[in-house]
Specification:
By secondary structure, the chain is an alpha/beta fold. Helix content is 59%, strand content 6%. It has helices spanning 11-29, 39-48, 52-60, 67-78, 82-93, 96-108, 110-122, 124-130, 139-156, 159-175, 179-194, 198-232, 240-250, 260-277, 285-307, 321-334, 338-361, 363-366, 386-397, 412-423, 498-504, 528-540, and strands spanning 402-406, 430-433, 452-453, 465-470, 507-515, 518-525. Helix 6 packs parallel to helix 9, helix 7 packs across helix 16 and helix 10 runs antiparallel to helix 11 (179-194).
Amino acid sequence: MKYTIKNNICRHDWKILILLFLSALVLRCFRLFDLDVWFDEVVLLFQVKGSFADIWNYCKLDNFPPLFPWLMKLWSIIFPGENSLRVFSAILGSFTPPAAYLLGRELWGNRFGWLLGILCCFSPPLIYYSQMIRMYTLVPSLACLSIYGLLRAFETNYWRYWALTAISNLLGFYVFSFMLLLTMVEVVILIWKFKFKIKNIIRFLIVHIPVLFLISAWLGPLIFRYKHIKESFWIPPASKEELIKLWIFFGTGTDFGDRYLIALLLNLPFLLGFIIGLRNLRNNASIRLVVILFISVIAIVYVFSLIGQSLFFKRYFLFLLPVYFGIVFSGWLKIKNKCLRNCGLYITLASLLLSVVYYYFDYYEYHAGWGFITPHTATERGEGHAISKAARILVDEIQENEVIVHYSSEPLGSFSFFPMIYYHNRSLPEYIYSRNMIPQYCGQQYLRPGEWIRTLQDLNPSPSGIWVVTMNPIEEFFLDADKSANEKGYRWMSEINLPIELKEEGFIKRETMHVGALIIVHMRRITEIEMGNVFKTKQFR
């Protein structure tokens, strides 16, 4: 069987790869330290403090395999601290544009590779998740390398390309479980392409035998975790609206603050390019392969999410974003009319550039979903540091025999509690208040004995003062505990109405502080002298 051999990576390509990497790194490091770490990042920071075996055991109760925390652990040995790990995450995310260049080069040549690499440099979702201490930053580059290796292996049958696909699939799975779906679809495509002819797929099978063995070591925890979240999570099945949101995510990455008409106009070039790109299925085998991969993975997850626990989250599909860009721009390049082709390309690029400008222009609003800030109020630089500011305030203000209690709806209580104890290194008496057990997806496995309380009676000894930290706008209830929570829409307060319990225990509000999205209410127990003064005042009146 004869193969047409394309040029290997040359010195010129290496220059392009380095340039794309450095350009992506600059964009990802801009405003990199403008935000505190949030709950999901703190989970990884807690894992890093343990041993490699501890990380393995922690991840069995978390949603993702342990490779990314292990890499963080190695990095933190030399460069400790959350800011250092943010840089590490940005570096890993900067490998996506070079990997996308290789994939684009294989699909349509060097210019297309350049275009795909530039798109991945400026994509807001790729930048956004590269600025987080999360595993999403690494997996898009591994997905690109896996597909690139498969395309080259189809063309050359060289061992190194089969091995590249196998290694990328293995590493990708241990970074992010969804890569297993990509591997499964690749196997189906391989069998379909070669019609079960063993001599044509023998190399793929050989290099994937150790991959299958190593993946099987995590299949047990993966299946157990899926069964557990199916029973414990409250997320409803996927809907058609989720598909629309995913399309926006793959395009500009944002709905521009619920400005849906603007979002429609700016995302339209991506959708049109994608639809036109589907016309390439007959004429371009490589485009046909990436389209099948892209649609199949989304379809599998969508079906799973309809029949059971929803796994249909936009960020879970981040690793497919370079593939989507490839399909979109292959569609515009397919148009024969030069003027129309160039207009489509330039408008799509302009939409992406406007999106990344919006991302940095409205930086805090873009991150408001994680509780960093109060929406529409972040007017000063540094508003994203509410958690660390609050931790410093409480370290300075808390008095002897006072405690901190986090009281918010689920999971907002965890969103404030875990970052707070990280910033003061559990140096303060701090508790999370909930009548129901804190679920694993809200950090149960990271709680120490006694840090979860169901009632103020669990505090021993009884404190003279309580600093209540909440992320719900409920400070009015600390003035009037008898208000109806249901009438105000706070049904979660009906069972765990802390203001009423504070009133019954003799606490009164002394002061309220607003720090970004946090509300801190200082409650002090009324002394006998103060009670006497209150009684005298009422009697006088």
